[in-house]
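User: Continuing from earlier, I have the next pair ready.

Assistant: Great, send them over.

User: Here they are, in order.

Assistant: Folding the first of the pair now:
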Amino acid sequence: MKKLLTTAMMASALALSAAAAQAGEIAVIVKTTNSNFWQNVNKGASAAIEGQSDHTMTFNGPASESAVADQVSLVENAINRGVSGIVLAPSDPEALIPAVKKAYESEIPVVIIDSGLADNGKEFYQSFLSTDNCAAGQLVADKMISEVGTEGKVAVMSYVAGVGSELGRVGCFVKRIEDQSKIEIVGPYYSQSQMATALNQTTDVLAANPDLVGIFGANEPTAIGMGRALAQAGKAGKVTAIGFDGNTDLQDFVRDGTLAATAVQGSFQMGEIGVQTILKLLNGEQVPNFIDTGVVLATKDNIDHPSVQNVLY
């Protein structure tokens, strides 16, 4: 995942440096604006652009993460109005490639954040900023095994099948569990990043698997729905639950014991470093192929520690 630039991409980065003198809009386009996680990306992007006299920043995204066509339109609209650069969190690894290619052909630098594009789209952007989702999934799996042991059933409540972050995060969680234990995986189930869907799915999973020992909610809305379902079923704290992301709902679940932990990404950093990387490209500077924005496992014991508080939102 970290070797994302080919020789051709290095050449493209140099070609794009010709646009360095062009001031204007940096478009930050995320998977949805209806999420605290993505609003924290917005905060980071806003912090990066503050004090810039030559560039402005716009923040946009579709109503839901599953509205892929709407996100494609947002990228195409940004290209058509001649933005100086694009920071993009693609909702689909394949569907966004033509739009990113169009930006490349228009000499508009693109920095991808959070979820990657498929291999055939990697030559059209200049840098990828993300949580190492495979490492994050393994971290969550290790925590799960330490809490429940090496046997029993663990359910996986995922979000959108096939998204780059989901493939790494959930895929490596499942593989680690299978490699390191005799735990039976139940699922995964896909909420489409809808909290209410995750709540209903979790309620059904709990009813169908009364012997469940653990459950993993793999992104913010899914983990919130999972936590609420556990509380409604009277199983909060009885089934080991681990979430992903760090808004106030998930923090409260960690504090009251509904969640044994939640893995928190550097969402602020994705926005901040994403915009900073575009600015460097516009100045003709070289940028890293891949930037790991990190993950922290927040538990009841460490949630008030400064290193954890810095990534919560």
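And the other member of the pair:
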Amino acid sequence: MSAQAPSAVVLIRAKRFTPNPATAADNAFQANAPQGQSHHATAAKAVAEMDAVAEALREAGVRVHVFEDEDHTRPDSVFPNNWLSTHAGGTVAIYPMYASNRRHERRADVLEMLKSEYRVQTIVDYSGLEPDGIFLEGTGAMVLDHVSRVAYAARSHRADTHVLERFCTDFGYEPMAFDAVDSGGVPVYHTNVIACVGTEVAMIALEMIPDEARRKQVRERLSVNGRTVIELTEEQVREFAGNAVELCGRTPQGKRRYIMAMSARARQSLRPDQIAAIEESCEIVAVNIPTIELAGGSVRCMIAGVHLDRRPVDGPRELSDAVEAINEDHPVTPDGRFVALAD
């Protein structure tokens, strides 16, 4: 298994999806649903797009764990990477979320599945920082280089540098924070819309880092081990070209294959030379998800990668396809540590 590219993912099938009004103020990538389109129609289209992503990943040989969500109070639950990350060695992190109506996206049943099917030793919970107004929205706020152990983070109120440093101390990463803004001077709300780090290739909108010295440092750090760095334009970022993720799948013959998962819109924005550079090490898997992208995130945001060792499977079981719901009013506390499931 690649240190950078997980072979399993968690997806949330959000049946009540809609662009979240609580996140619109600072998410310049967010848009409203077409005028006259009902909430029901928007949600139905989003579910179909999520199913298409799950099917494309399964066809690529990625193990996909899908969880249903029918809660109308969780419009952004399709983006689990903001509250959850997993790490080699059996550690899971849970993060503090900026928007109060996103904080109950955290789910005990997801954690129970991870503990049941994978080797989980420790769950580190940072969500208790929310009452202090301190936030770090997971692998949206950070783009992690698991090979060189670097955490890249664009500063924003969704990516507090103090908790970034705390995460890096706890998990053994080097923090690399920087400012990133669009052409209008608006700060980038999440790092993973401007940057993607794969094993042998990275994509990043360096032009959106105004400090020239810091821009150079980021580029050098990304390429220090021979990784190819593809520079994205702001226009490509607005098409979600930076919101991609490398995964490790399998061919029907069982041979390992690396894929770069992104949206069809993102792929269409890439130049032929950029596509060729990606395809030196990865096969691009692109899925059309225009409805989900209305919420200001794309394929990367939808995927919580599983970097954990799998437990031996005793007999047939597909827990990920039929996970029993846990009463969120009386959640099981993972590893004896409290996990906040509500605002």
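Worth noting for the second one:
The chain has one domain: 8-313. The chain has ten helices and 15 strands.
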